[in-house]
Specification:
The chain is α+β, with helices and mostly antiparallel strands. Helix 1 (36-47) crosses helix 3.
């Protein structure tokens, strides 16, 4: 079992001072077993916390500092990159690397709205949901507006993103003195409404940034998994006279860069428990470790409550890079992983990558819940948590739950109650799972194929090798419809036509459904399964109805955006 800590970002003030540094007191040991970049990283981390350096000062340029230390720029850059990732340093184009000034909030006078930010990046902003209501303000909002909690105030909720998917959920409350009615056309830019319709000019914004794990509500809104890390940005908007106009909170997935593609980060690992077992689930060896995060060092309250870990446990933990290296060495290069559920390995791989450790292993892992369900089909009302299954099987509960090693030992106890050899032998491959999802019976499905190892989610729409399919009758390239419909989670389909067979009496005469299913089993790479389906009259009728509805939605969205 792997327990990950919630991300808690420092609240930062975005103001910088360009001052010269004196020679930094860094010493490195070229004969040490500790990598050079890690020696530098640890010393820099301590130095920039000293009063002389901690208030927005600039680091020496990389050329000078690498010469001073007698190391390559690449080695130095690796150390600095890690501190940038932690939020301790920031790079400013044309200026240099600057120590982040840790404070409560940022204050910006020349700031952009979400719409302006997106358009500046060449992204057309899209409203997926927009709701207004009247709600009683919280104590925090009352203090901000200097009002009582006796009367309801206007609340605006917006789910926004690009034309392909939503990625930010905003909630706004407005000062009652503005006079908003709730009947405004909020598809218009918000601050344009305030200025043009109510003479309330948004001039100053103060922001606070933190993070938490996504609950079911936010996960559904943002199309991520519960427990994924999300950024929280509170924005406090004032008019030129310093009077409050808007209290806003926004939620969006916390991301990291994986080979040029932004991906949702699911949090740092703080505890690992593992056992080596044979195919009869006999325990051969155990591994247990507490890890000290290097990016987000404050223990999240939910993790503390569930696991019993304390901040002191975290502070005394083994450095995460060192600990993960030791764990992977203990596992060995050919280890096959098994876990209760499918969450641990993706988290492990993300953490390995961010610690500059080979994330390609493991290549094989199993969801033991699926092995269990093969022998013990789930009945109505039965839970699938490890504790509920241990209770159901009547196994002794001599260890506490939610301790990483204890949970792993309980998992081994469950496995000894199963025909583990048979369960693992019958375990479906990724291809088999994708086929079952994409090609359910009944139906006439053809030309099933899987493409693996892509980092960009929508490569299937741009790579001709994946996107272009051949007519099942004559082999000519099919022409997909302009409209694609989403079906379930990460599934899309459209009706494609063959220029030679269209209108004929053969199987492709009325068109062929081109179907795709996407999966990201390892948390880093996408796999695309595709197939063709010969339609019947009922599926064609559903397609036409759903296509018409989709076109109407697209037209309405375009009209709103044109009005903006």
């Amino acid at each position: 079992m792997i327990y990950k800590n919630e991300i808690l970002l420092s609240q930062v003030q975005f103001s910088y001072f360009c001052l010269n540094f004196s020679i930094m007191k860094i010493s490195i040991d070229h004969n040490s077993a500790i990598p050079l970049y890690l020696q530098i990283e640890n010393q820099l981390r301590n130095i920039i916390r000293e009063p002389e350096y901690k208030k927005g000062k600039m680091l020496p340029n990389e050329v000078d500092l690498s010469k001073q230390l007698g190391i390559s720029r690449n080695t130095l850059r690796q150390a600095i990159n890690n501190l940038v990732t932690e939020g301790l340093l920031v790079r400013k184009k044309g200026i240099g690397t600057i120590v982040v000034n840790q404070s409560v909030s940022s204050k910006a006078k020349n700031w952009l709205s979400f719409t302006q930010e997106m358009k500046a990046q060449g992204i057309e902003p899209t409203n997926y949901e927009l709701h207004t209501s009247w709600a009683l303000p919280s104590e925090e909002i009352c203090r901000f507006f200097s009002i009582t909690d006796e009367k309801k105030i206007l609340k605006l909720e917006r789910l926004r993103g690009n034309p392909e998917f939503p990625f930010v959920y905003f909630i706004s409350y407005f000062n009652p003195r503005i006079g908003l009615t709730g009947n405004e056309d909020f598809s218009r830019p918000l601050y344009e409404i305030l200025e043009q319709d109510y003479s309330s000019v948004a001039k100053i914004s103060k922001e606070e940034i933190s993070a938490q794990l996504a609950d079911k509500f936010l996960a559904q809104k943002l199309e991520i998994k519960p427990g994924d890390a999300i950024l929280i940005r509170k924005r406090f908007v004032y008019d030129p006279g310093g009077r409050p106009l808007e209290w806003n909170i926004g939620y969006q997935p916390y991301t990291f860069n994986y080979h040029g593609v932004q991906q949702t980060f699911r949090g740092e690992i703080v505890e690992i428990g593992a056992v080596k077992i044979d195919e009869d689930a006999n325990v051969l060896d155990t591994f247990s470790i507490h890890l000290r995060p290097r990016i987000f060092r404050k223990l999240q309250h939910h993790i503390a409550k569930v696991t019993g870990l304390t901040q002191a446990d975290l502070d005394k933990g083994e450095p995460i890079v060192q600990g993960l290296r030791r764990f992977m060495q203990w596992c060995g290069p050919d280890a096959e992983f098994a876990e209760w559920g499918m969450d641990d390995v993706p988290v492990l791989k993300q953490n390995l990558y961010l610690c500059n450790i080979d994330e390609s292993k493991p290549t094989i892992w199993y969801d033991l819940q699926q092995v269990f369900l093969r022998e013990h089909p789930r009945k109505e009302g039965e839970g699938m948590t490890l504790e509920s299954v241990v209770t159901r099987l009547g196994l002794p509960m001599e260890r506490q739950f939610h301790d990483a090693l204890s949970d792993t030992l309980y998992t081994a106890d469950v496995c000894r109650m199963l025909d583990l050899r048979a369960g693992l032998a019958a375990y479906p491959t990724e291809e088999e799972s994708l086929r079952a999802s994409l090609c359910p019976t009944p139906g006439d499905y053809r030309d099933f194929e899987v493409f693996r190892g892509y980092v960009e989610q929508y490569t299937w729409r741009t790579d001709p090798k994946i996107y272009i399919m051949s007519c099942p009758e004559c082999g000519a390239p099919l022409t997909p419809d302009d409209v694609w419909l989403k079906k379930g989670s990460n599934s899309w389909y459209t009706l494609s036509q063959c220029p030679h067979c269209a209108g004929s009496s053969n199987a492709a005469g009325k068109g062929v459904f081109q179907r795709y299913k996407l999966a990201r089993r390892d948390g880093l790479h996408w796999s695309y399964a595709r197939c063709l389906q010969i339609p019947d009259d009922a599926s064609l009728a559903r397609w036409e109805k759903q296509r018409t509805a989709q076109l109407e939605r697209m037209k309405a969205r375009a009209e709103k955006q044109a009005a903006e």
